[in-house]
Design brief:
With 174 residues, the protein is mainly alpha-helical. It contains 5 helices and no strands. It is flat, with a radius of gyration of 34 Å.
Length: 174
């Protein structure tokens, strides 16, 4: 689109924004920040062109001013996306370092030929309340359980009678 559109076209800004979102969802935060920055550049170029057009068009500048205001409202949102991408990158790097440290630690203390059961004993010695801490709080839900119908035989007969009546209607219709 950069080849076919002007450098200040809103479609180009939207494309960079969408690419930034896609890179962000794919955890490619450097590329996301670059695309969001390009989107801001295109919007700023568009605002400069519109400001020039406002100066040239004396009477019909309301339309240009409206578009400038719309673009000004978009800029903080895009800058927020840039900050979010940078924050995600930092938190991703911290998580990656923690994961590497955990893997390195587990590989040094893990299954060795001399002490085959050391890791298993560490796992077994964990507290049993790690995943079941909420089991102490019991909620009575017996009022939500439906009771069976008292006369199941009568309800079945009524259903069968309805089916037979429908069958007789169909047989007379033919």
């Amino acid at each position: 689109q950069e080849q076919y559109l002007e450098a200040h076209d809103r479609l180009l800004a939207e494309t960079h924004y969408q690419l930034g979102l896609a890179y962000g969802y794919n955890s490619q935060y450097d590329e996301a920040v670059a695309q969001f920055s390009k989107s801001i550049e295109v919007i700023e170029n568009r605002m400069a062109v519109l400001n020039e057009q406002v100066k040239e068009a004396e009477g019909s500048s309301a339309e240009y001013k409206k578009e400038i205001e719309e673009l000004k409202e978009l800029l903080p949102e895009i800058r927020e996306k840039i900050e979010d991408a940078k924050e995600s990158q930092r938190s991703g790097n911290v998580a990656e370092l923690a994961l590497k440290a955990t893997l390195v630690e587990s590989s040094t203390s893990g299954f060795t030929p001399g002490g085959g059961g050391s890791s298993v004993s560490m796992i077994a010695s964990r507290k049993p309340t790690d995943g079941a801490s909420s089991s102490n709080c019991v909620t009575d839900i017996s009022h939500l359980v439906r009771k069976k119908a008292e006369n199941q035989a009568e309800s079945r007969a009524a259903v069968e009678g309805t089916v037979e009546a429908g069958a007789t209607v169909e047989s007379t219709a033919c």
